[in-house]
Design brief:
By secondary structure, this protein is α+β, with helices and mostly antiparallel strands. The protein is built from eleven helices and eleven strands. The longest helix is centred in the middle third of the chain and has 59 residues, at 167-225.
Length: 449
């Protein structure tokens, strides 16, 4: 009788699911009761569940009303609205990073757990021998069945105390107990990581809801200022179909489209002022840094684009898969950088500037072009949805677009990349330049708007 019991013990130790899972499966497998009548307790439980659902719905409606009132109040103060937009967008991107890191840790932990379970399973016969010897030494009947590593660990520890007179046996038992203890601790760590991941996902969902409301308010104000906004956007799309390359598109927009032309004019004026300010600062020994970007009410770039080297943040969380000057995947040379992102990632502007184009363009998918002044343009492509309009001035770190679920850029699709990819290109006087010197080297140096 003892051998079958030990076999059951070992099988559950190395290969069984958690007790809760086994119980759930047993409950699922059990046939449904054949009674048609519903008990009073079941009716009461359903009423409680319905009441809880109503309470959650009411709470969500109240939170939505509160958020709407808060956004409306913020809308009266452009500085506060900009501040909230940038801070919320930064918060969304920070939580996106935490989620990526947590998922990576969970993959490693789950892999380690599988390795440990496989190792214990391969040494099942050895564990049977040790447990049997310890049980004989302790002259105690083993438990009928153990379904959790915690139970097996407790059984081993108890038996080890009784079998202390056999040093070799004790050493083998301690090794097994150590591995079981590590497996128990590993499962606890995995549970904690999963709880934190669920919490982070809830937070990013709430932050994205808030960000959507803030963006809608910003665009409502923009639409109020630009009465003919829809007509301008339609004309921009029509003009984009008349040109064959990016430089032609930029020239066409800034020449023929009223709002883009005004934006280009403001950018030129701002560039002259910024250059004069930079020259004065250089003469006085002062240096431009992230502090120059603190004024959220500004309507022109904080510093000249040429002076922003080493300060700008990447516009999206992701991994660089192509760099400036490398292969573009279709036989050409990469004129910008490509960042692989997660679906739905938030895109923020890397610099201050005026929007001179926002819409679809040939093989680039959705394309956003910013005039940063001083002859510099920043092109961002591959998004699924853009949330700014032509002529609008945007601040560094401000949310401007959202990624889709797959790549929108033709050159990326040609290499069978299924994940979304953001393409970023810097231009000076129409010529693509290496954006590398402009990116912040570390988190502390990034401009926050």
């Amino acid at each position: 009788m003892r051998a079958p019991v030990l076999n059951l013990l070992i099988a559950s130790l190395a290969g069984a699911n958690l007790a809760g899972t086994s119980l759930a499966q047993a409950q699922t497998a059990a046939p449904a009761p054949q009674t048609a009548a519903v008990s009073p307790d079941a009716i009461k439980q359903r009423e409680q569940e319905l009441e809880a659902a109503r309470a959650r719905q009411k709470s969500a409606e109240e939170a939505q009303a509160k958020l709407k009132a808060e956004i409306t109040a913020l809308g009266q103060d452009r500085t506060q609205l900009n501040q909230q937009l940038i801070e919320t967008a930064a918060g969304v991107r920070a939580v996106e990073t935490k989620i990526d890191e947590a998922e990576a840790r969970l993959r490693a932990l789950n892999g380690r757990e599988q390795q440990m379970r496989a190792s214990l399973d391969l040494r099942r016969a050895h564990i049977v021998e040790v447990l049997a010897a310890l049980q004989r030494a302790g002259r105690r009947t083993p438990p009928a069945l153990l379904v959790r590593p915690e139970d097996a660990l407790q059984s081993l520890r108890t038996a080890m105390l009784l079998g202390a007179v056999v040093p070799e046996l004790r050493g083998r038992a301690e090794k097994i107990a150590g591995e079981l203890g590590e497996l128990v601790a590993l499962r606890k760590t995995i549970a904690i990581e999963r709880d934190q991941l669920a919490s982070d996902r809830d937070k990013v969902h709430n932050d994205q809801t808030r960000l959507t409301a803030l963006v809608d308010e910003r665009q409502r104000q923009q639409a109020a200022r630009e009465k003919d906004l829809d007509a301008e956007n339609s004309r921009a799309i029509a003009l984009s179909r008349q040109v064959g390359d990016l430089q032609g598109l930029i020239a066409k927009m800034e020449q023929d489209l009223q709002s883009a032309a005004k934006a280009a004019e403001k950018a030129a004026e701002a560039a002259k002022q910024a250059e004069a300010k930079a020259a004065a600062s250089a003469n006085s020994g002062a240096k431009s840094g992230p502090g120059a970007f603190k004024d959220k009410s500004r309507t022109t770039p904080a510093i000249a684009f040429a002076s922003a080297k080493g300060l700008l943040p990447l516009p999206v969380n992701g991994n660089k898969i192509r760099d400036f000057g490398g292969s573009d995947g279709v036989g050409g040379v990469q004129k910008g950088i490509s960042l692989a992102t997660k679906p739905g990632s938030q895109v923020t502007t890397p610099c201050d500037g005026w929007v001179v184009y926002a819409g679809p363009f040939r093989s680039y998918g959705q394309l956003l072009i910013l005039n940063a002044g001083g002859g510099y343009h920043v092109l961002i492509a591959g998004m699924e949805r853009i949330s700014v309009n032509i002529g609008q001035f945007v601040l560094t770190g401000e949310p401007v677009a959202t990624m889709g679920s797959t790549s929108q850029v033709a050159s990326i699709l040609a290499t069978n990349a299924s994940q979304p990819v953001l393409y970023v290109e810097f231009r000076k006087d129409g010529t693509p330049i290496d954006p590398g010197p402009w990116w912040a080297a570390n988190e502390g140096e990034k401009v926050r708007g």
